[in-house]
Structures are given as structure tokens and as C-alpha cells.
TrEMBL record:
UniProt similarity note: Belongs to the SprT family.
Lineage: Bacteria, Pseudomonadati, Pseudomonadota, Gammaproteobacteria, Enterobacterales
One Gene Ontology cellular component annotation held by this UniProt entry: cytoplasm
Residues at the catalytic site: 79
Keywords recorded for this protein, A-Z: Cytoplasm, Metal-binding, Zinc
Free-text cofactor note: Binds 1 zinc ion.
Keyword NADP: no
Protein name (Swiss-Prot/TrEMBL): Protein SprT
Cofactor(s) listed in the protein's UniProt record: Zn(2+)
Keyword rRNA-binding listed: no
Binding site for Zn(2+): 78, 82
Cell compartments where the protein resides: Cytoplasm
InterPro entries: SprT-like_domain, SprT_Zn_ribbon, Uncharacterised_SprT
One GO term of the biological process aspect: response to stress
Length: 165
């Protein structure tokens, strides 16, 4: 993975928001929570992910730099809510009622399952496949599965098998 240098002010903003949200959770549940380990190694179009058993949050450095304030205000609480939901309730649905409760009631942040950031700069090469009714964009991973004979994709509209032009 290509190394991306995260400006120090952004790293501080990430930690400040993380600590603020942890403090809110600590007051609500009357217990303290350790700070999660935060890494900037998330790749692709995913803004962040929570590694529940490792108490770790992975952030996409490129999307963080491109969407600074919105990223910090939305993605940090989103991923921290996953960790807290797991800690407090055990194995639950990833965006279930426990997670939504933490997001909306505790953090006062809309419980959006996905981000709306532009992913143009982090999107991998796209391969255009066709059926009889339209064209489809497949990722390099999907394309490679087709090439290896591991997958075949079918149009949901017309039911025809997709073919590379």
C-alpha cells in the first residue's frame, strides 16, 4: 500500500473527536473505555472500518484528507459506535438498533450506513461489461474473478450473462 502522510492537525482532530465521543459514552454508561488503536490503512472506497476484537479503527487516509471536517464528524463516530455496540451488547447486527442508538441518542449524529464522499480519487480501474439492455461497471476484483472462472455476473434487469466488450 502506498504511504499517505496525514497532516498532524488532522491526526489531532481525529483523536480529539474520538476522545470526545468516548467521554460521552463513559458518562452515559458510567464506565471508562480505552482509546481505540487508530490506523490510516483503509484502502479503496471504504472510509473506515472497525476491528471489533482488536479495538481498532482503520481510516482511509485519502478520503480523510479530501473530506476533512465531514469525515471526522461522520466516520469517527460511525466506527466508534461499532466498537461500543460490540463492547456493550456483544455480537449484534452491524448497523442494527444498538448501533443506531449509539449514533443518534448518544452521539447525536445521523445513523448513515454509508458515506457520500466522492470516491473518484480512490476508485480502482473499472471494466465495462455489457448485457442486452445496458452496460455495467465491474471492479478489477470482479473482473479478475471472471477471468479466473470463479464468478460470472448476470444482469438483474434482463437476466443475461455479462460479457466484456
Amino acid at each position: 500500500m502506498k504511504f499517505v502522510n496525514i497532516p498532524l492537525f488532522l491526526q489531532h482532530a481525529v483523536m480529539r473527536t474520538t476522545r470526545q465521543k468516548l467521554t460521552q459514552a463513559s458518562h452515559f454508561w458510567q464506565q471508562s473505555f480505552p482509546e481505540p488503536h487508530i490506523t490510516y490503512q483503509q484502502r479503496g472506497t471504504i472510509a473506515g472500518s472497525a476491528r471489533l476484537q482488536d479495538w481498532e479503527i482503520r481510516l482511509n487516509p485519502i478520503l480523510l484528507i479530501e473530506n476533512q471536517l465531514a469525515f471526522i464528524n461522520e466516520v469517527i463516530p460511525h466506527e466508534l459506535a461499532h466498537l461500543l455496540a460490540y463492547h456493550q451488547f456483544g455480537k449484534v447486527e452491524p448497523h442494527g438498533k444498538e448501533w443506531r442508538f449509539i449514533m443518534e441518542t448518544l452521539f447525536k449524529v445521523p445513523a448513515n450506513r454509508t458515506h457520500q464522499f466522492s470516491v473518484h480519487s480512490v476508485r480502482s480501474k473499472i471494466f465495462i461489461y455489457y448485457c442486452r439492455c445496458q452496460h455495467h461497471e465491474l471492479t478489477i476484483r470482479q473482473h479478475n474473478k471472471v477471468l479466473r472462472g470463479k464468478s460470472c455476473y448476470v444482469c438483474r434487469q434482463c437476466g443475461e450473462r455479462l460479457t466484456l466488450l
